[in-house]
Design a protein that fits this description.
two-stranded antiparallel sheet, TIM Barrel
């Protein structure tokens, strides 16, 4: 698999490729605008051309866009739902424009109403987004850690949404920290085998598009979204060596979303650890 990270786009999206190259990233994830604002980026032709040229020069890819954090498809607020749909469609269009595989996003929270009360609405919103966007952009659902009524902490929940959305364009991004916090043991080989067997049964491995590679500040089943640097959390180096050696991930890109050893976000030090563990996993 390719190993990479979420990288900043300050100064233009093509600058993200320069930052990725500096840290040795082989694949990248970017925002298409500020993650806490509704306004999304309008890319100029010159910016898109420069970005694609840099990707070709460096061989970095695939590229993913991460959706803004404000979206909530489980809300009972019509205005918020409308804004969420508009933002998702805009980001899907951006993904197609810059040549990204798709948009990785959080489905949001049912705010205590319960999964069954909101799942129909979520599926409808996914269908609308698919109908309104180009066929070359994937709709990539990210699993949640299970906090605050978050939708999609269990594979069965994601699998139902993916199937009933009615398109092979619906994919899944598996966040290792969220998975662990939701009660799936990805640290031990036995636990990881059981986790991925359940993923295949409930969702299908063919839908696995990317992995967010994050260690966990939270113990197994802790139900909170708290990322840690690789090897510094409860998953640990041995857990990531298990992940990197598992057949389910052989061709799946891994993307760091860690705090960084200097608290500046994903960095070369974390990526070097992943590369070291990948080499060890390959050798074994």
């Amino acid at each position: 698999m390719k190993l990479g990270a979420h990288v900043r786009t300050a100064g233009g999206v093509d600058k993200a490729v320069d930052r990725a190259q500096e840290m040795g990233a082989e694949t990248i994830q970017v925002f298409s605008g500020a993650p806490q604002a509704w306004r999304r980026k309008n890319y100029s032709k010159e910016e898109v051309d420069a970005f694609k040229a840099r990707l070709k020069e460096t061989g970095i890819g695939p590229v993913f866009i991460h959706g803004l954090y404000l979206m909530n498809f489980g809300t009972d607020n019509p205005e918020l739902l409308k804004k969420s749909q508009e933002a998702l469609v805009a980001e899907m269009n951006s993904a197609s424009l810059i040549g990204a595989r798709g948009v990785i996003f959080h489905l949001g929270s049912h705010k205590g109403a319960g999964y069954e009360a909101r799942v129909g609405q979520v599926i409808d919103q996914c269908r609308q987004a698919l109908d309104a966007t180009p066929d070359d952009a994937w709709l990539i659902l990210e699993n949640s850690a299970g906090q605050g009524g978050a939708i999609g902490s269990k594979f069965a929940e994601l699998g139902r949404i993916a199937r009933e959305s009615g398109s092979e364009r619906v994919k899944i991004c598996l966040d290792t920290q969220h998975t662990f916090a939701a009660g799936y043991d990805v640290k031990t080989r036995e636990g990881l085998d059981a986790t991925m067997a359940e993923f295949d049964k409930e969702i299908g491995l063919e839908r696995l598009a990317a992995v967010h590679a994050n260690d966990s500040k939270i113990e197994l089943g802790g139900g909170r979204d708290r990322h840690e640097n690789i090897g510094e959390g409860y998953i640990g180096r041995d857990g990531f060596e298990n992940l990197l050696s598992h057949a389910a991930f052989a061709d799946v890109p891994f993307l760091l979303e860690v705090p960084g050893f200097d608290d500046s976000g994903p960095d070369k030090a974390n990526l070097d650890i992943l590369k070291e563990l990948r080499a060890a996993a390959t050798a074994s």
